[in-house]
Amino acid sequence: MDKKKQIFEIISFTADDREYYPASMEHENWMPDNFVKHTEIDIALGQSRYGGPIVDLPPGVQYPENLRFAAQLDLSKFSPYDKSGLLPKKGQLIFFAEIMNDTGKVIYADVANEELVRTTKEHEDNFYTGILIDKIYTDTETLEERYEEPEDEDDEEELNEQDEVWNYFSGCEKSKIFGIYTNCQLQEEEIEEVAFSDKVVLLQIGENGFNDEGVFSVLMPKEDLKNLNFDNYEFIWAQS
To answer: Among 122, 156, 219, 236, which residue is least crowded by beta carbons within 10 Å?
Structure first.
């Protein structure tokens, strides 16, 4: 089969239309109407979200030093859309990161939401605002979708056999689990190498209401995910 036509099953998700920021911050003129203080939004324990000052941790787990809360996934909401069966059926995946040096930590805990302990850590660093995850659904994608017709003569130098060019920014608009790695800084061969390797996209937060310009990704070996071993992963921030 042509690799470009291979279908990748993914779990896509969308952003809530509100964005919340630390209540200790002053409201700035640049903030749009959908920006609210974190004390003005109702967030259930364990509710899936991206960034912000609020994280719900398993009992006895401390907020990691030198990292920022990046995301929290309620797996009971995501696993029904997982055709691969790789994700745990329930529990929490919690991500902390420092995108300036591509480091981080992933915590998996099979803990009921009502047992989680809410921790609030207000700051003005990366991930200081938060966005709730809204809709979750099954989707598919192919490498073929990342090619397009050339727009100008300069593009013609990079034509493939189908007279198309690689779109470096294709895929940036998606937030998902699994599928094709997205990094607008990489050549198509580098993206293909990851896509057909033993790595999986454990998390991608894209530009569909979450990030303005950039994609946050977490990669890990597929076998480690099967074995619930969350010690080996890569954190990547790809500025678009």
So the answer is: 156
Q: Is the pLDDT of residue 153 over 60?
A: no
Cβ neighbors of 107 (< 8 A, separation 6 or more) are: 57, 58, 61, 92, 93, 94, 95, 96, 230
Query: What's the residue count for the chain?
Result: 240
pLDDT in tens, 176-225: 999 999 999 999 999 999 999 999 999 999 999 999 999 999 999 999 99
The CA-atom distances, in angstroms, between 142 and each of 51, 120, 231 are: 28, 39, 29
What is the phi/psi pair of residue 30, to 5°? -75, -15
213/92 Cα distance (integer angstroms):
27
Task: Domain ranges for the chain, please list them.
Answer: 14-139, 144-240
Under 8 Å between Cβ of 240 and 213: yes
Cα→Cα distances 150→3, 5, 159, 170, 176, Å: 21, 20, 8, 14, 28
SS3 79: helix
